[in-house]
Structure formats: structure tokens, C-alpha cells
Design goal:
heterodimer; A: alpha/beta; D-Maltodextrin-Binding Protein, domain 2; 9 helices; B: 271 residues; mainly alpha; 0% strand; globular
Chain lengths: 263, 271
């Protein structure tokens, strides 16, 4: 009896629709983690416009995605959080056509809602004993965070060794920006530096924001490109167009990105 | 029985051997090929050069220290548990057994999240430790805890199997010679189970050394403090494949050498 059930179960599986990882009905998008919510919506819009299309998205640190693409991952579109990793992929001849900047982001400091370390202003990040979490240097936002810290060090009202002290307070180098959000959200870290767009509706109630003034902030330009290794170049181009279209730009703006075109 | 090439007996004798050989070859190929691919990628000169870099020495040192600490922790805490499970029947034994096995089926990252929610600053237990000045995440202790969590089941199960395999005759003999339960355990059961205990310890140590998901989630990633070799490899992989491969090979050589040494401890034979 159990044997029959097992055979029946296996037979059922055989009729289950196979995942469309490649082929004309599937589009694979590699995008930086900070784009998770915005690109999921864009993907759904594209699916509605193209009957039978499945958009598969892989969200990870841009550095990780670039390495995977270099190692032969068959993605159709790559959206990076900085020019560095797009240039990395481009230098290896893996891009089809040109890259376009489709959004900008800026940094913000976050602390847990309960603010255990009593951080009232950016200078407090350098206080002894404050647990700061940053993304690793190879991650775009990690590099930008360190640049912003350097800018703040030279600002009036900040001590000479501000950046050094904050970096000494770092207790973990996360491998993507959402790791930083998670640690702060959980209350394990006293402070973290992330993109403004990473304070999503889900995490907003759990954190407090500390704005970093424009002149010390880093404006991160996000480039997007179609990849040569993709199996669906036409749909890939459609995805990029959608991202750059007024509708796509509006979606990005709604998620606290800075649009590049007027939505 | 005839054993000429065409006879049934001959074929019956050769068929299983053929299957065994084929299956073994496949499995060994699966295990050996990735290792060889790694080794072939890095010339020895590059390896030695990498060994000198502070990132590598820190990570290696940390890995060896923490895996040793977590293995000892597991040995210390696991031995009594294995003894309990081997000897006694009690209410809820099945639940305890399932709990012990749980870390083996839990994805390591999930284990990390669980540890964070339990021992984090605002965690279930951690919130009582925080006012005392004890915070666990982002410390070496967290690394040891994460490793102990995921590798504990291996030792407990191996030790228990070792204890249960001891011929009850010996225990009865010990009892007739009026030895206490403790004495019987220490002088009869334990020495007879040493091969199983060593096998369990080796598995635990190996699992602890390779632990990644729970570590990066619970302990974080900070060179010199919580960045063990697996974490260093992962971070390196994201920007420099060659560096990652070199680190992987270093870890491979260390692990393999130590495992080989454990298996060849003088005077001990393996089951």
C-alpha cells in the first residue's frame, strides 16, 4: 500500500510544471540586494505584459553577482549597486551593449528603535563601546560607508580621528547590506550604515534614521546592463527599458531611490 | 562449484564485486575531483605566500582555536548525555533524541538566527546577560557556541552507539566484582568505547572547522575575532577568486592532515 502511494506521489511530481530557469519563457535578473523590493515589482509588471513569462531574480551583494557572472552564470540582466562591479563585468567582455544608470541611492545611518547606545548624532558613532556594523569593503555600500566616514572626518564639528574611531567600533563586516539592516533591526548592533532605500516598510518600524548631510554623503549610481550569456536578450532589453521608463522610475522612487528620469 | 568464466557461480561471485567497484569509483571520483581541482589551481609558491598574509594566519589560528574549544565543549557536555541516552529509559527520551538530532537537519543559517534570538542582546536568555555586561554576538565565544551547536549531535550519537555496543557481560562481570556504576563506566565502558568516541570527536571537530552559516549569522564577520577560515574564503570569493582558492587549499591541507593524524593515533583501531 505504501509502495503504491509512493509511486503515485512520484507520478504526480512528474506532471508538476518544471521551473522555467531557462528558455524563452524565463528571464534571469541578477540585482543588488538593495533592489529587492523595487525589482520584484518591476518583474511582476513585466510578467503581466508578456504572457507566459517568468522573471527569476537573484538578489545578492553586487560583488558576489559579478563573480558569479564571471564564472559563467547565465543571467540575462545585471543591475549593480556601483560602477566598480559593472566595470569589472564589462572589462571581461560579458556585457551586451552599453550600460545605463537607472537609479541613485544615498547613505543613511540607522540605529535600533530602542537606541541602546543613545546615539543622537553622527559623532556618537565614534563613542567608545558603540557596536557598529558595516558591509564588507568589497560590497558597494561598504565601500561607500567608508568614503562617507572619511568625508565626515574632514567636516567641521567632527574629530580628526572620527573615521578611525568608528572603524574601531565595527564588530562585523556583513556580506550584503541587508545583513547590516538585520543586525541593527534585531538590536544586536548599536548602529549601521545602509542605503536610504534599505529602510523598507518592514524594517522602518524597528529602526531610527540618522541623516547624513548631502555634502558628506555618497551618491551611489546604479548601472544596469544586458548580459551576453543570457538566453533571452529581447526580454532582457524590455526589462531594462521598463526600469528606465517613467513607470519603473516611479517604482524606484517609491522605494526611496533617487530616480534618474522624471517619473 | 565450477568457477569457469561462463558458470553461474563465477558470475554470481563477480557481479557484486563489479557493482562495489563501480559504486566506489563513482563516489571516490565525486569526493576526489573537486579536491584535485582545487589543488591544481594553486602553485605551491603562491600558497606559501598567502600563508604569510595576516588575514590568513588570523583566520587559520582562529579556526583551529575555536574548533578545538567547541569540540572540547561538546565532549564535556555530550558524554553525560550520551551516557544517559545509552543506559536509561525515561519519559520523553524520544523527544530528547530528536532534539539532539535537530542541529543536523537545521540549515546552519537558521541555527544562527535561533542562536541570535536566544543569546543576542535582546534575546530570550541574552537579555538577562546584557545587564551583567555579557554580550555574546560578535565575540569568539559566539563562534564556539555556533560550532558546538551544529557539531554536537555527531559526538553524542557516536558516543552513545559506542556505549551501547559494549557487551553487557562485561558490566555484569563488573557488578559481580562489586564495582559501582561510576567505576564500571569509567573503567569498563569508557575504555572499550574509545574508538567510537574518537570517531565522534573527529566528526565533531571536522564539522566545527567547516562551520559557516551559523557563525556568520550569530557571531558576525570580523577579521581576527570572528572571521574563521570558511568565512574568510567566502568573503574572498566575492572579490578575488584566486585568493579564495588559495585559502580553500590551505584549509583543505590542514583539515586533511589533522583528520589523518586522528585516525592514526597509536594503539587505536577504528571500527
Amino acid at each position: 500500500m505504501r509502495g503504491l502511494l509512493l509511486i503515485a506521489f512520484c507520478a504526480l511530481l512528474a506532471f508538476a510544471p518544471p521551473p522555467a530557469w531557462s528558455g524563452p519563457g524565463a528571464l534571469t535578473v541578477f540585482a543588488a540586494v538593495s533592489l529587492t523590493e523595487a525589482f520584484t515589482i518591476v518583474g511582476k509588471i513585466l510578467e503581466q505584459r508578456h504572457a507566459g513569462l517568468r522573471v527569476q531574480q537573484s538578489f545578492a551583494g553586487s560583488q558576489q553577482l559579478a563573480t558569479q557572472i564571471e564564472q559563467g552564470a547565465r543571467a540575462d540582466v545585471f543591475a549593480s549597486a556601483d560602477q566598480r562591479w559593472m566595470a569589472y563585468v564589462q572589462a571581461r567582455g560579458l556585457i551586451a551593449g552599453a550600460t545605463s544608470e537607472f537609479a541613485r541611492n544615498r547613505l543613511v545611518a540607522i540605529v535600533p528603535r530602542g537606541n541602546p547606545a543613545r546615539i543622537g548624532r553622527l559623532q556618537d558613532l565614534a563613542n567608545p563601546g558603540v557596536k557598529v556594523v558595516l558591509a564588507a569593503d568589497a560590497v558597494p555600500v561598504g565601500r561607500y560607508s567608508r568614503v562617507a566616514l572619511e568625508k565626515l572626518t574632514r567636516a567641521p564639528g567632527f574629530p580628526q580621528d572620527y573615521a578611525a574611531r568608528v572603524l574601531r567600533n565595527v564588530v562585523s563586516h556583513e556580506e550584503n547590506v541587508r545583513g547590516v539592516v538585520a543586525k541593527v533591526q534585531l538590536g544586536e548592533a548599536d548602529a549601521g550604515v545602509v542605503y536610504r532605500s534599505d529602510v523598507t516598510p518592514t524594517s522602518a518600524p524597528l529602526v531610527l534614521l540618522l541623516e547624513i548631510p548631502e555634502r558628506f554623503n555618497v551618491v551611489a549610481g546604479y548601472p544596469i546592463a544586458v548580459l551576453k550569456a543570457g538566453t533571452n536578450p529581447d526580454t532582457a532589453a524590455a526589462f531594462v527599458s521598463l526600469v528606465l521608463s517613467p513607470l519603473g522610475q516611479r517604482v524606484l522612487r517609491d522605494h526611496h531611490f533617487v530616480p534618474v528620469k522624471d517619473p | 562449484m565450477s568457477t569457469s568464466p561462463r558458470s553461474g557461480a563465477y558470475r554470481a561471485a563477480i557481479a557484486p564485486a563489479g557493482i562495489v567497484a563501480a559504486a566506489s569509483a563513482l563516489l571516490l571520483a565525486l569526493l576526489v575531483l573537486p579536491v584535485i581541482s582545487l589543488l591544481l589551481r594553486v602553485p605551491p609558491g603562491v600558497l606559501l605566500e598567502r600563508l604569510r598574509s595576516p588575514v590568513v594566519t588570523q583566520a587559520l589560528w582562529l579556526s583551529l582555536l575555536t574548533s578545538l574549544a567547541s569540540t572540547l565543549l561538546v565532549l564535556g557536555l555530550g558524554l553525560p548525555v550520551a551516557y544517559l541516552l545509552a543506559g536509561r529509559r525515561f519519559v520523553g527520551k524520544r523527544v530528547v533524541e530528536a532534539l539532539i538530532d535537530l542541529p543536523m537537519v537545521l540549515p546552519p543559517t537558521v541555527a544562527g538566527v535561533g542562536l541570535l534570538l536566544a543569546f543576542g542582546r535582546v534575546g530570550l536568555v541574552g537579555r538577562f546577560l546584557a545587564p551583567l555586561g555579557i554580550t555574546v554576538p560578535f565575540t569568539v565565544a559566539a563562534v564556539v557556541l555556533a560550532q558546538a551547536f551544529v557539531s554536537g549531535p555527531f559526538f553524542v550519537n557516536a558516543a552513545r552507539a559506542g556505549f551501547e555496543a559494549v557487551d553487557p557481560q562485561y558490566l555484569r562481570a563488573a557488578a559481580t566484582l562489586r564495582s559501582s556504576a561510576a567505576y564500571a563506566f569509567l573503567r569498563v565502558v569508557l575504555p572499550l568505547s574509545v574508538p567510537a568516541l574518537l570517531a565522534g570527536a573527529a566528526m565533531t571537530w571536522a564539522r566545527a572547522l567547516g562551520e559557516f552559516g551559523a557563525t556568520i549569522t550569530f557571531a558576525g564577520n570580523l577579521p581576527g575575532v570572528t572571521q574563521t577560515m570558511p568565512l574568510a574564503v567566502y568573503i574572498a570569493l566575492q572579490s578575488d577568486l584566486e585568493a579564495a582558492v588559495a585559502l580553500s587549499v590551505i584549509l583543505l591541507i590542514f583539515s586533511f592532515t589533522l583528520l589523518l593524524a586522528l585516525r592514526n593515533l597509536p594503539g587505536r583501531t577504528w571500527r
